Amino acid sequence: MVTLTHFLILSFILFSIGVAGVLLRRSIIIVLMSLELIFNSVNISLAAFSYYLQTLNGTVLVVFNITVAAAEVAIGLAILVNVYRSRKSINVEELNDMRY
Amino acid sequence: MNTPAKYSALWPLAAYFIMVVLLVSSMLLLSYLLGQRHRERVTGEPYESGIAPTGSARLRFDVKYYMVAMLFVIFDLEAVFIYAWAVSVRELGWTGYIEVLVFIFILIASLCYLWRMGALDWVTSKKSVPKS
Amino acid sequence: MEMNLIKVVPEFIMLGTAFLLLVIELFIARGSRKFFGVIGILGAIATGISLLYQETGSALGGLFIQDQVAIYFKALFVLCAVLVLYITMMYEDKIKHWKGEFYSLILFSIAGMMLLASSSDFISFYVSLEFVAVCLYVLAAFTSENRNTIEAGLKYLITGALASGFLVYGISFIYGSTGATGFSAVATALKTAPGSGFLVLGLSLAIIGLTFKISSIPFHVWSPDVYQGAPTPVTALLAAASKGAGFVVIMRILFTALGGIKAEWMVFVAVISGATLIFGNLAAMPQKDLKRLIAYAGIGSAGYLLMAVAAGSTLGAGAIMFYMLTYIFGILGSFLAIVIFHNSEGSDLIDSYAGLSRRSPLLAFSLFVGLLSVAGFPPLGGFIAKLYIFAAAVKEGLWVLAVIGVVMAIVSMYYFLLVVKSIYLRPPHNTAPIHVDFTSRAVLYVVNFATIFLGMYPGPVTDWVMDIAKVLF
């Protein structure tokens, strides 16, 4: 029997993978993918709560969250293109021009 | 909730799954048994209508593809909100209808804006882009 | 479902102005867009006037609440809009492309902050927060020819999206454990059922996610790079308006929705506040770029404001509201002076400000008043605000935090006085006077007067603010 806990564990695992991806990976593309993973893991958690509580609020938030994630990643890709144009590289570790 | 009756509704899915596995494996097996086998110099090369392939497949695509993909994703997602309206169209009545009209109007306006700004142009022409 | 659209009129005016600018942009040829700033300022003034006629109540089917606190913060955001648009007009020549969009994005982000100040449900709160964030991501990376700007924009986006992920994950647990998303519904649910482990987890994640908006630990890392690299009007917007928007929602969530479990979040917020105070102020000391220095000082300010949040009382909430008012005047006056100076000298380094008092006494005086008000120097506005924050903290027994706060206030005076010393006491590299046009002079005089006035005669404002802060509890 699949219970709420299973969904929450799945969501937690995906969330952790996403956070680890953002913090550890060097390619900006992978970082953006990890961000998408974070948002979608939250969607799982929200949808599961929404189903088990039998209220629609969580589902509504999922719909908005999908849009938000798309908007953020779209802007991320646009900035990424400009980063590549100015530096010929998409490695996060090379973004260190500003130091005091 | 915990009875097998809950799962019995899933039998078409299981049957479908089994059929897919059977079909695919039988096709692979038959072609393995019946097909001819040979190994020449160009056997392993990809088939491109008799023309020898050149270069690597990992070539760089124009950034415009990403641009179009991005615009598609953004406009595509807005459809989610229209679905949400569509399932409860009777309950929402005219208020909901007007709201959706406003929503679609904003989408069309933003599309016009993108068009006018030249974001949809595949080839950048100098005259249509009023970069201030 | 009660819509009550009349309560959303100020936001509509702001959004309408932003859309109007976009439409005008479509039909005119390239060239200067300074008059966009004028239209934007007129729109902001119209928004401000419509705010005067707003009555309290809820709208949009309970997703939107118009109370005194919301109206106060909306008035602050309108003020920010006016000043930031003016700063943008001064800065405009540095923006090469899409100048018109820059103005309308500023108005869009201000409209989002106004919605944020009024949100009374986790759903409308999250959507308006992201509305603001998405506008700011674009703005922070706007002048994309500049290497530093594009780097700043990307850092801002990645940290911001990560923080949003934490925030919405936290919201999902708060929703899961209380079964509600409305702030007052969550508060009611907490009265009948005590908080569970899920709730505390959700609460912690949500607070951590919110620290991004206010640039406090643990999501402070973006702030120095973004303040330094982003176009200066955007830095001003982030420093003043975005921080205010962050605090108004923190107050709504912690005081209104989760006031019932104050014991759970008080220590957590106090620890974040202490760490932020110490880090921000100590890291500000060796800075050589003025915008970067203000970024670290801004992290320090977030620490003070969080101290008032940790107090969790009416006094604390009123102190936050008054602090934001003085902070906006102090920081935006300084940024206007920074932009004018940058237009003339092309540098933001503290060293290049040497001898400014002999080149332009007004710019020097504005920086003097603005920065020392942020540092909390008597008798300027920021001093009174900090006094109220310490009073709120001590009254709730947060002695250790108050002591850290006082020590760090002295540290902040040290690094701001270094700037002042450079401006007033060191010989100038170049003695040519800096021209400040008539309007900028007038704006600087008004802002400086406001900062000094709030310090000398704060009584009426503080009384009023303390009175309206009650609605949060």
Provide a descriptive summary of the structure in words.
The complex is a heterotrimer of chains A (100), B (132) and C (473). Chain A has 100 residues and is mainly alpha-helical. Chain A has one domain (8-91): Helix Hairpins, CATH 1.10.287. Chain A is 78% helix and 0% strand. Chain A is elongated. The mean pLDDT of chain A is 90. With 132 residues, chain B is mainly α. Among the domains of chain B are: 5-34; 63-117, Up-down Bundle (Methane Monooxygenase Hydroxylase, Chain G, domain 1), CATH 1.20.58.1610. In chain B, 62% of the residues lie in helices and 0% in strands. Chain B starts with a helix and ends in a 15-residue tail after the last helix. Residues 127-132 of chain B have low confidence and may be disordered. Chain C has 473 residues and is mostly helical. Chain C has a domain at 264-473. Chain C is 75% helix and 1% strand. Chain C has helices spanning 9-27, 34-52, 68-91, 99-118, 122-140, 147-178, 183-192, 197-210, 222-229, 232-257, 262-284, 290-311, 314-345, 356-359, 361-375, 381-395, 399-424, 438-456, 459-468; strands at 57-59, 64-66. In chain C, helix 1 packs antiparallel against helix 4, helix 6 (147-178) crosses helix 9 (222-229) and helix 9 (222-229) packs antiparallel against helix 10 (232-257). The mean pLDDT of chain C is 91. The A-C interface holds A 15, 18-19, 22, 28, 31, 35, 38-39, 41-42, 45-46, 49, 53, 55, 57-58, 60-61, 64-65, 68, 71-73, 75-76, 79-80, 82-83, 86-87, 92, 95, 97-98, 100 and C 122-123, 126-127, 130, 133-134, 137-138, 141, 144-145, 147-148, 150-155, 157-158, 160-162, 164-165, 168-169, 171-173, 175-176, 179-181, 224-225, 228-229, 286-289, 292.
In short:
With 100 residues, chain A is mostly helical. Chain A has three helices and no strands.
Question: Which characteristics define this entry?
Answer:
heterotrimer; A: 100 residues; mainly alpha; Helix Hairpins; 3 helices; 78% helix; C: 473 residues; two-stranded antiparallel sheet
